[in-house]
């Protein structure tokens, strides 16, 4: 059976490391990193994510600044808050919680965030430089960065290996493929129009699944010994739970763990890494601002 990659434990370790670096920064320059979070509307899931991010910041000694705007806030209101944080030197990272209400153009808001404070890594300058050889983005999107960090900290060699990424979204699949390529893996991206996804996935030494379909990826999609990173978070009905549902990945965990050499669980795999990478990006931004190593 596959070794389970404990994303929660690895994320906790990283958060401790970040906390120690923040304390060192405070001693050296008298300042700590600052993260601004903008939430628009009252979606319960978004409010939960924002609360988790703020709690993680406070545990690491990172200062958080937050603004909650009503559902009917205008695009100009949101952009004005973004610009205000762009100009605030105590804020090193700015995060706009997505999705925004339908009447607001998400692209316009994300592009208003200074690319030097874009800790989510969604600004076109950061996405563009990630795709360019010889260039270094200021920030890489947290979830794919977390996937690579999990592979590194689990001792998985990427250089020279065959990798398959399932999904081509801007926030997960595409940057994950770029990052694997930067680690010198040979990368194939499989998506909704790929006619033979299982056949292609079976060639991979490393698989990152980011599709958003519960347990779509079955055990026979994997080459024996493959390393499997499952980004998917899908709720499926489960009447035996108090909540009435449980969370599963895009990969059929039980089948895959018979074939893979290493696998991430859902929950407790990639999820906790996303927040750890947000803190890491915020720390990096503050280090650049204060010129500390
Ligand atoms: P998305 O819907 O934006 O993109 C899904 C991608 O999957 C698309 O590129 C599509 O081409 C591809 N796809 C759809 N059906 C497919 C199929 N049958 N075969 C192959 N590819 C197919 O989703 P996303 O934002 O990239 O998120 C993917 C999953 O990851 C979701 O379950 C989401 O909840 C989860 N997620 C988790 C985290 C985290 O762990 N913190 C962060 C972001 C997303």
From TrEMBL:
It holds the Pfam family THF_DHG_CYH_C. Gene3D superfamilies: Leucine Dehydrogenase, chain A, domain 1, NAD(P)-binding Rossmann-like Domain. Residues 5-120 form the Tetrahydrofolate dehydrogenase/cyclohydrolase catalytic domain. One of its GO terms (cellular component) is cytosol. Keywords: Hydrolase, Multifunctional enzyme, NADP, One-carbon metabolism, Oxidoreductase. SUPFAM superfamilies: Aminoacid dehydrogenase-like, N-terminal domain, NAD(P)-binding Rossmann-fold domains. It catalyses: (6R)-5,10-methylene-5,6,7,8-tetrahydrofolate + NADP(+) = (6R)-5,10-methenyltetrahydrofolate + NADPH; (6R)-5,10-methenyltetrahydrofolate + H2O = (6R)-10-formyltetrahydrofolate + H(+). One of its GO terms (biological process) is tetrahydrofolate interconversion. Residues 141-289 form the Tetrahydrofolate dehydrogenase/cyclohydrolase NAD(P)-binding domain. Coiled coil: none annotated. Belongs to the tetrahydrofolate dehydrogenase/cyclohydrolase family. Catalyzes the oxidation of 5,10-methylenetetrahydrofolate to 5,10-methenyltetrahydrofolate and then the hydrolysis of 5,10-methenyltetrahydrofolate to 10-formyltetrahydrofolate. Homodimer. NCBIfam families: PRK14186.1 (NF010783). PANTHER family: C-1-TETRAHYDROFOLATE SYNTHASE, CYTOPLASMIC (PTHR48099:SF5), C-1-TETRAHYDROFOLATE SYNTHASE, CYTOPLASMIC-RELATED (PTHR48099). HAMAP family: THF_DHG_CYH (MF_01576). This is Methenyltetrahydrofolate cyclohydrolase.
């Amino acid at each position: 059976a596959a070794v389970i990659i404990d994303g929660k434990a690895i994320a906790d370790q990283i958060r401790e490391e970040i906390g120690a670096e923040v304390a060192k920064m405070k001693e050296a320059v008298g300042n700590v990193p600052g993260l601004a979070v903008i939430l628009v509307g009252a979606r319960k899931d978004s409010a939960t994510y924002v609360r988790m991010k703020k709690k993680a910041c406070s545990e690491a000694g990172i200062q958080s600044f937050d603004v909650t705007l009503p559902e009917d806030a205008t695009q100009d209101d949101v952009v004005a808050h973004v610009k205000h944080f762009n100009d605030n030197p105590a804020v090193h990272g700015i995060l706009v919680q997505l999705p925004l209400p339908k009447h607001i153009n998400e692209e316009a808001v994300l592009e208003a965030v200074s690319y030097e404070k874009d800790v989510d890594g969604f600004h076109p300058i950061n996405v563009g430089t990630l795709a360019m050889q010889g260039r270094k983005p200021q920030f890489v999107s947290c979830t794919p960065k977390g996937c690579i960090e999990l592979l590194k900290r689990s001792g998985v060699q990427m250089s020279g290996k065959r990798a398959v990424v399932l999904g081509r979204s801007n926030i997960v699949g595409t940057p994950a493929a770029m990052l694997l390529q930067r680690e010198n893996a040979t990368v194939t991206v499989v998506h909704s129009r790929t006619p033979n996804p299982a056949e292609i996935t079976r060639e991979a030494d490393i698989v990152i699944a980011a599709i958003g379909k519960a347990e779509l990826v079955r055990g026979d999609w994997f080459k024996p010994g493959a390393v499997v990173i499952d980004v998917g978070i899908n709720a499926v009905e489960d009447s035996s739970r108090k909540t009435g549902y449980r969370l599963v990945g895009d990969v059929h965990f039980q089948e895959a763990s018979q074939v893979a050499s290493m696998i991430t669980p859902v929950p407790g795999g990639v999820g906790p890494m996303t927040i750890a990478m947000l803190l890491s990006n915020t720390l990096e931004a503050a280090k650049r601002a204060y010129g500390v190593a």
